């Protein structure tokens, strides 16, 4: 980054252009990060959400060390057994340990959420920048594609694609990524288009700044906040989507456990063994609340209408 300083003298102007020291940039970045942390710590629900996210992620990540039985192994012992020291959450209709299945089963929803939203975010940012700074005909074409994708009811589109590709984790990730791309692309496009005609972008171009520099220095930093809010708010929705598809038999294939399939298995025995439904339902509720609290906290910090000190 360069700065320009004009000093007026007697009949002459002196223009000096110099680079801002890297220490100054580092200090600015550190100050912004500290301000963000200070604001985040003030948000109690956000802190609760962050703790829950770390706790759930830790349990899922270290699941092999926590499980007491093979989650896919069919036991010879009692079916639908009550919770005990040997089986902390009892067993299902096939004698499998419910605790082990719930702990390991959290991997699929979180994998689907982060993989699908990560792909959607990457593709959406690129397409949004192209639409915002590209030629008008390309912008119109991309908007038409976005509107076409969003015009289909989500569940019908998902069922159609999964029926075509077959039920699998990859199919679910693909469906959710495709339907999420237009959301992120529109956010980036709106910001890029607004900045495209601004005076300071024109000033940047006048001193020789290229499009790549403008996008990286001015556009992307302005969309980080809104994108973080969207992602954190979308994670609970994706977890619910994945669980719903698994509940309908369109998710991962048996015997791989996940929260939706465990809920589906337990629903048939809800009167006899209600803990099967409770065991898979509580983690989904906690994960949903955790990311919702986190998203609300990020919104309070990054939303210019709500933040106070940032």
Judged by helices, strands and strand pairing, the structural class is mainly alpha
CATH superfamily: MetI-like
| Number of individual domains | 1
Quote the CATH topology: MetI-like fold
Number of β-strand runs: 2
Report on this model:
- With 310 residues, the chain is mostly helical.
- It has a single domain (34-302), classed as MetI-like (MetI-like fold), CATH 1.10.3720.10.
- It is 70% helix and 5% strand.
- The chain has 12 helices and 2 strands, in the order ββαααααααααααα.
- It has a two-stranded antiparallel ribbon.
- The protein is elongated, with a radius of gyration of 25 Å.
Give a quick precis of the structure:
By secondary structure, the chain is mainly alpha-helical. Helix content is 70%, strand content 5%. It has one domain (34-302): MetI-like fold.
Topology:
Elements: E1 2-8, E2 13-19, H1 22-42, H2 44-61, H3 63-66, H4 98-105, H5 107-133, H6 136-151, H7 154-165, H8 169-196, H9 199-206, H10 211-247, H11 259-267, H12 275-302
Antiparallel strand pairs: 1-2
Helix pairs in contact: 2-12, 5-6, 5-8, 5-10, 6-8, 7-8, 8-10, 10-11, 10-12, 11-12
Give keywords:
single chain, 310 residues, mainly alpha, MetI-like fold, two-stranded antiparallel sheet, 70% helix
């Amino acid at each position: 980054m360069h700065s320009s300083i004009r000093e007026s003298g007697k009949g002459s102007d002196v223009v000096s252009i110099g680079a801002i020291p890297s220490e100054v940039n580092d200090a600015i970045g550190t100050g912004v990060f500290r301000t963000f942390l200070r604001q985040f710590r003030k948000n109690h629900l956000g802190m609760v959400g962050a703790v829950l996210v770390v706790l759930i992620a830790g349990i899922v990540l270290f699941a092999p060390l926590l499980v007491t039985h093979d989650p896919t192994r069919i036991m010879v012992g009692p079916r639908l057994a009550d919770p005990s020291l040997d089986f902390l959450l009892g067993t299902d209709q096939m004698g499998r340990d419910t605790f082990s299945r719930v702990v390991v089963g959290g991997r699929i929803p979180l994998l689907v959420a982060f993989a699908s939203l990560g792909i959607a975010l990457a593709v959406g940012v690129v397409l949004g920048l192209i639409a915002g700074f590209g030629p008008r005909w390309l912008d119109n074409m991309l908007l038409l594609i976005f509107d076409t994708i969003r015009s289909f009811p989500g569940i019908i589109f998902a069922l159609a694609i999964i029926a075509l590709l077959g039920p699998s984790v990859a199919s679910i990730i693909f469906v959710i990524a495709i339907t999420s791309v237009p959301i992120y692309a529109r956010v980036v496009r709106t910001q890029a288009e607004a900045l495209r005609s601004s005076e300071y972008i024109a000033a940047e171009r006048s001193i020789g700044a290229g499009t790549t520099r403008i996008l990286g220095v001015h556009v992307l930093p302005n969309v980080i906040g809104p994108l973080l809010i969207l992602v954190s708010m979308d994670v609970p929705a994706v977890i619910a989507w994945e669980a719903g598809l698994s509940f309908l038999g369109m998710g991962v294939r048996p015997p791989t456990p996940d929260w939706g399939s465990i809920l589906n298995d337990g629903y048939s025995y809800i009167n006899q063994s209600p803990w099967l439904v409770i065991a898979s339902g509580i983690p989904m509720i906690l994960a949903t609340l955790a990311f919702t609290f986190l998203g609300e906290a990020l919104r309070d910090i990054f939303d210019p209408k709500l933040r106070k000190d940032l």
